[in-house]
Amino acid sequence: MSTAVGTFLGPYQIKSLLGVGGMGEVYCAYDTRLERPVAIKILTAKLLADPDGHARFKQEAKSISALHHPNICVIHDIGSHDGLDFMVMEYLEGKTLDQSIPEGGLPLEFALKYAIQVSEALAHSHAAGIVHRDLKPANVMVDAAGHIKVLDFGLAKLAVPPADPNEAETLATRPGTIVGTLTYMSPEQAEGKPVDARTDVFSFGTVLYEMLTGSRAFQGGSGAAVLSAVMRDEPQPIHERRRDVPPELIRIVTRCLKKNADARYATGAELTQDLKACSDLLFLESGAMLSPARLAREVKRPRVLVPLLVFIILLAAGSAWLVKRSRDARWARDVAIPQIQQLADEGKLVEAYALAVQAEKSLPNDPTLGKLWPTVSYALSLESVPSGVDVFRRSYADGDAPWQLVGRTPFKNIRVPRGMLTWKFEKAGYVSVLHSTAGLPRHSFAPGEAAIASITLEPVGEEHAGMVRVSPAGGFKTLFIPGFEDMPELELADYWMDQYEVTNREFKAFVNAGGYQKREYWKVPFVRDGKTVSWEDALVQFHDAAGRPGPKDWLQGEFPPGHEHYPVTGISWYEAMAYAQYMGKTLPTIYHWNRAAGPRFAAFIVPASNFGTAGALAVGTKPGMSPWGTFDMAGNVKEWIWTESEPGKRYVLGGAYDEPTYMFIDPDAQSPWLRASNIGFRGVKYVKPDSIPAVAFAAVPSRRRDLAGLKPVPDELFRAYRGLYSYDKSPLNASVEKVGNNEEDWTMEKVSYNAPYGNERHRLSFSAEECQASFPDGRLFPGLQRFAAS
Q: What percent of the chain has pLDDT over 90?
């Protein structure tokens, strides 16, 4: 791919080759228009080989070019010439950091000076939503004055990560910069998981470790060995390699290199704050404060010097504390509080709460922060039966996030974050309970008031093993299901539902127990095309691929190897009912299934569920949990329920891995004889079955229209109808008007814009009750606050 000296790429004349990297070649060139030297990176064809590669390259370059910071290399231009894609950057004189680190590491003052500049560059990019992804010494330039410039922001995003560990090992063994890059990768990046700012923090830690010790933090004889070290090993302690590195700086490096991303600094801004505080302490030690060796010599002098030395030490320590306190307060005021407000506006309330807790330590009585607390948190009081239950919470969308202890019941007015969380309740001798925020049973929760919730734990036993209690707490109307708004509102008592879909292993027990041979489990009449089918004739159809009784996708009475915890599929509605009977359960009605699934919280549940993948997953793999602790009711496999739509069809709800996400709330009706590979089921037990209204078990006719037999209208008529909705494109002239007085909990605004007809204005408005019902804790979701009714 080498480009000859003297070649022109547009207005840029190539002068010399500066270097070769994994993403391309870098040349010194001359800009003939502006008459200045520039650096040109010609990207490898591999990075842009996919069909949308060029579009992604342009979009990424546009984002990077928006980064204006003294420690970030400026992007001047991008272009293509004779099939070559290139990026034009400012020309920098100096050496890369990997060329500047001597054996044994840099002097402390230089290492810290460089580290602060790199972290400030990361802080700026993270604030703009850009993650570097490939931070390493070779991507850091140092000029003669010690000024730092970080290169290649965001370019690594163009590289596709390995799809599996074997491929990763293959890449890792290639010569060149791939191995070098692996040395600085975070564990989650090496595993091909999604990355965020904390990945850059880990890479920064490896760079700072190398600046301090002169050695790489993670080493190995091959790329695979390096990859293993990054994911599993801890680097050799810094103090074993170099004794003059202060503990505070070692603490910073150690925190950056935590395997668990949650234990690292959240962003470059937080990292910079600690580095600058460390720098201030080292400055005081080198100036106002004496070094330990110097102090030992001074103490040996006449006793008159001892009080003076003590005074100097106390003065230096106090000065360092004041400097750190001032810096923390400035960060909280200038960085944290604006970020908290922004996160709250975006609906990221859990993240906003975590940042507010950190900021409060530096600004304990700040009035601006005080006004934000009601937006990002509320006071929770909790009772339980029995008492003494330990209460934990964690992020809803991250099933691997660590649990945080909230308190032990009973407690009152403990501040907790708003937004959707997963809650866990534990006590020895009792079955642990999971709820999402949407499933916390409340006695009272109005805006401005504390939430008072109660929870009941059951003693450990077999009666309801593997099931969760669903507590409807009053009437329930099946909402958020298109076309079913007119269903009756029913009073539902507590009931028990399987926490997970029935698995292959569980269904195998039914098969082994002779479930297909025992008539007592098959109590529902078999009906096909309006005619009753005998039990013997029906059972002949329920066999596996080898003709033995069992699910369609099994072979010789066995499920696929390794799939014992996967949901059983390839079973008809009749087989699901027989298994439920065998277990002393039944299939849920449409009312009970939807109540447990929590479709009104689909905005939280669906993104955390198994949609759009190649197949079903083991039950509980995804964190998508419904309000009362059931998993996979959205996605994974669809689920048979009791309710009939019309003769010859039963509902299957929840959507499957291979269906659009809207199928979670879109009811589907199929023949009960269907044995599809994406349909499973779960069971239910009713605490008081006699108290359930008969209408709950009645058929619910489908609102879908069968359009197959309709005759299309003539083309002329269609064009006439289409013309009625053809509007000229014109500016919307949207406006936002304040309505009434804004209160602490409510923002009242009216949004209007030009209608596509006449000179009318269209107004967006909702009733306050509709807005309040849109979020589980009784307050408005921040994004909906603007649409409260006038």
A: 40
Token digits for 296?
């030992």
- Closest-CA residue to 419 (of 350, 492, 477): 350
The token duo for 126 is 């993270």
How far the first Cα of the chain sits from its last, in Å, is: 64
Angle between helical axes of 197-213 and 268-286 (0-180°, round to 10) = 30
**Catalytic (active-site) positions:** 134
Assess contact for 34 and 11: CB atoms under 8 A: no
Q: Give me 735's structure tokens.
A: 């406006």
Taking the CA atoms of 191, 197, 200 and 202 in sequence, report the sign of the dihedral they define: negative
Question: Cβ neighbours of residue 588 under 8 Å, at least 6 residues apart?
Answer: 497, 596, 641, 642, 682, 683, 684
C-alpha Rg value of the chain to the nearest Å:
32
- 386 cis-preceded (ω within 30 degrees of 0): yes
Q: How far apart are CA 274 and CA 248, in angstroms?
A: 9
- pLDDT-derived band at 75 (thresholds 50, 70, 90) equals confident
User: Is residue 403 left, alpha or beta, with left meaning phi > 0 and alpha meaning psi from -120 to 50?
Assistant: beta
> What is the helix (H) or strand (E) element at residue 406, kind and residue range?
strand 404-408
Residue 113, CA atoms < 13 Å, CB-side half-sphere: 13
Q: In this predicted structure, which of 20-34, 436-450, 513-527, 579-593 has the lowest mean pLDDT?
A: 436-450
Give the orientation angle of helix 108-127 with respect to helix 197-213, to 10 degrees.
170
DSSP H helices, 151-218, are: 165-172, 177-184, 187-190, 197-213
Give tens-digit pLDDT for 307-343.
656 655 666 566 556 666 677 788 888 888 888 888 8
**CB–CB of 25/176 below 8 Å?**
no
Specify the DSSP class assigned to residue 598.
Answer: -
Report the alpha-carbon angle 244-246-247, nearest 5.
130
